[in-house]
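Two proteins, back to back. First:
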Amino acid sequence: MLFLLDPLCSSTVLRAVNGGMAVRACGLIIYRRLQSAPSSKVTDSIEYLLLQTSYGTHHWTPPKGHVDPGEDDLQTAFRETQEEAGLQASQLTLIEGYKKELHYPVRGKAKTVIYWLAEMKDCNTEIKLSEEHQAFQWLKLEDACKFAEYEDMQATLKEVHQFLCSKE
């Protein structure tokens, strides 16, 4: 199936030439840094936020969702984070230099998910879940990879961690 940008729609909407709509979603991989002992590595204090869905297989994922008409990808990521985790853009710092695009099939349709990286400004900020999710966890890398069942998400979390380590 061939996908083309639809000139009649927002630049973030794709149309399938052979019928069916491609799915596009955007989100934020959110992390926080806990206060750590002076002797420990800074990256040992990093935890990632994962949300457990209330539907389907109850999988764990960063906040993300579908792009609305007229919305750009980054606006979508911040809106979905606010809707799903109760976090405002002002409570987060977007980390420059990281953006990841994942591609996989969902129910016979091509899906693209774009993630940016954001740090919590205050690691004690309360998470307020929407009805779409039933639980959340702050997890160190190893546990986050266990909770995130899909290999592409595990690889993305490891890549994010390496990116953060390289910035130390």
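And the second protein:
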Amino acid sequence: KADALPDKLGWLALVGGDLYDISTGELIFKNWLRGIPLRVFYYPESRHLMVQAERGIMRFGLDGKQDGVMGVETPPAFTNDGSQAMYVKDGDIWIAGIDWTAFKFINERQATHYGQFYAPYFSVNVSLASEKACLVNAQNNQLRVDLSTGDLKQTKIPMHIKAKLRSPDCKVLVGNDGEKIFVYDIDKPEASLFPKREGRVSDVQWLNNDRCVFIIGGKTVGIFDRKKNTVEEVATLPFECHKITDPSLDGRYVLCNNGKALVVVDVEKKTAESLNIEADHIGWVSHDTLMYAREIPDMKLRGTWLKTVGSEAHRVLEQPYMVGYDSAAAVALMRELGVVVLATRNTVFRMKPDGSELRELAKLNQPVGRIQAVEMWGK
């Protein structure tokens, strides 16, 4: 198995704690990992698998055995592209490049000289990070750290920041500031403020690194454009909603909900339409197609379904994919391959996002709550 793994790296997925080859359904390593890692990835030039946890990164050989760790005593935070690490040593922030092939930090240098940072919790307290600066929660303040000069600046950013308020590249933060919307770019000295209509911003969802949508007062959907540096309204909801879920793959559609009913918002056409679907879990699997699970007694409605915007829904499996108590689902979209991997109570399947080429991959001895694709770092 180890000899063949380099050719399969893009096809690997963690199903529960087991590692599978999604191209064949072969079980590569049983009971390989415990817990839920932040990320499982590989670096193309390195013949290794790597697992990022809250306490650093573990490296595994292609035989599945751990053969290295990085940052366990001083868990690092990384820029989104994996080119730079930040960590604390003797109370100060250090930065370094990363040689993933040798699995070590390179060109390490001390960035601050204040001695006030705490190593074990530094990485989880970093809210934003770029090669120039980072925003870190320290001593009950959100501090902007200039990584070139070492200067610290106290900001007015709230202490507790929800992860979904951050852009995918972890460089921009949006939120509610009374009568205005604030946008904080880690590479700029001050936050930008934009006026909005009356009502609190109840939820935010980034579409990509440059645009995010938000709900104001439960009725209006607005959008912030990072490149244009503008905020505008794009749709009025047919009924009150306070949550937005992940966008379609191209960022055109988002779902808004109130816990009972769904609305699909078309950001391009600036429309909002009620979606008459009741489901235990629902999410996008392509630019315009939703997949959802129904765990109900009615055998005509039960199962795993697909619905493309503008078309009728159709069922692809009579059994629903698994949905956990935390609302996480046993589903992974492997974008590079254009396939969806999902697990029902006792079977793992693979299919195209439109439901074609549905294939049973493996039987399960017990249900799994999550599937995680093994990613290429920086993707």
